[in-house]
């Protein structure tokens, strides 16, 4: 297994925008026929266009595509496919919506891509227990549409309409995390097909309790594992009551320091904000152009509050006092759903607005997260470093939980620019680590952050992860080249 893992590492060159193939070539006709026998001929493809589509996500990485793509229709077929691939020594790559940002779907060793989007049932909603069971093809927007009349919702929102099981696999987060937590806080149980083809229920079949002290936390092990330990075929998720009332707001600031200081002060004052997002002046200008808005081009906070009408009034008053003390201006409040949607349009379209700054380029998003007390220091320094780098980029982030992103625009055909992006991202990651933070708050390790992972958790931590990987995936075939 150690050899396989080393080969996967040596076969990667993500910052050059491609990955080398380290397997022996295309799959045999007999093997492809065996795959067809499991899923049926209409649910398998070896065409170049389909394979290329499944060999990339929203990241800057461009890798070799898988050898074949299959669409299982149920968990039984997933188990058969995985067991068949494992017996033949063929790499296995899970695929959801392809909205990841760390190259997690890249087929660095070829193999079989298992597209799970045809398994898209909302299996069961337990309204009295505030939980739901979903298959891997269900996205978070589809789930909330389904729940619209139930009085419940699922608040983890990464921006893109990602699949919920994919979000569990990457440990995703989003704009509501400051109040409702990340996927790690909202996954109660997982169904996982192991490399052997066996089906594991991480908390026991059908169980959806809120807490347990029963043995090792297997659910937590697979949340954030990025398909390297098994394929998630169902997730039991925690639901939350829809708030009685919601109010959103934006306010502009004279400086990055003033905006981020306001974030820290609001949290220290225990104002129960549901969302608090930061966009720098470059990002606001890009959003104005892309979404045809007219916000002030200045460092800006987007805030949202959930609760009763009475409590919201108090929260808004306190937040406004704090932000004005830090020099905020151009307040814009919105209570009606349509008004809130327009107000939040800039934040939701931030990635695509940034991409529009340099058409034809790829985007790379950094993903550091630090303790909230260190947030002003690192954001201000990052803004200065970004200006000095000569790179085109913006700053945007879920600053309520210390997480922010630099969205960098890069020409993948320009080696010098790629090198500068790599250097900037590594410098920022190490700055976050020096402040006792993490190199990834929500995107995962994927292809590009494996060295930073080692620096973050240390040699002993990485070795424990390798042992876990070796126990569950001794042949190193589950999404090879990622995380470790």
UniProtKB/TrEMBL annotation:
Please list the GO biological process terms of this entry.
Answer: lactate catabolic process
Molecular function GO labels: D-lactate dehydrogenase (cytochrome) activity; D-lactate dehydrogenase (NAD+) activity; FAD binding
Superkingdom as given in the UniProt entry: Eukaryota
**Cofactor(s) this protein requires:** FAD
Query: Gene Ontology terms, cellular component aspect?
Result: mitochondrion
Q: What is its EC number?
A: 1.1.2.4
Task: Write down the chemical reaction(s) this protein catalyses.
Answer: (R)-lactate + 2 Fe(III)-[cytochrome c] = 2 Fe(II)-[cytochrome c] + pyruvate + 2 H(+)
Enzyme category, top tier: oxidoreductase
- Per UniProt, residues of the FAD-binding PCMH-type domain are 61-242
Where in the cell?
Mitochondrion
Q: Which Gene3D superfamilies does this entry report, sorted A to Z?
A: 3.30.465.10, 3.30.70.2190, 3.30.70.2740, Uridine Diphospho-n-acetylenolpyruvylglucosamine Reductase, domain 2, Vanillyl-alcohol Oxidase, Chain A, domain 4
Summary of the function given for this chain in its UniProt record: Involved in D-lactate, but not L-lactate catabolic process.
Quaternary structure note: Interacts with CSRP3.
Matches recorded under PANTHER family? D-LACTATE DEHYDROGENASE, D-LACTATE DEHYDROGENASE, MITOCHONDRIAL-RELATED
Q: What's this protein's name?
A: Probable D-lactate dehydrogenase, mitochondrial
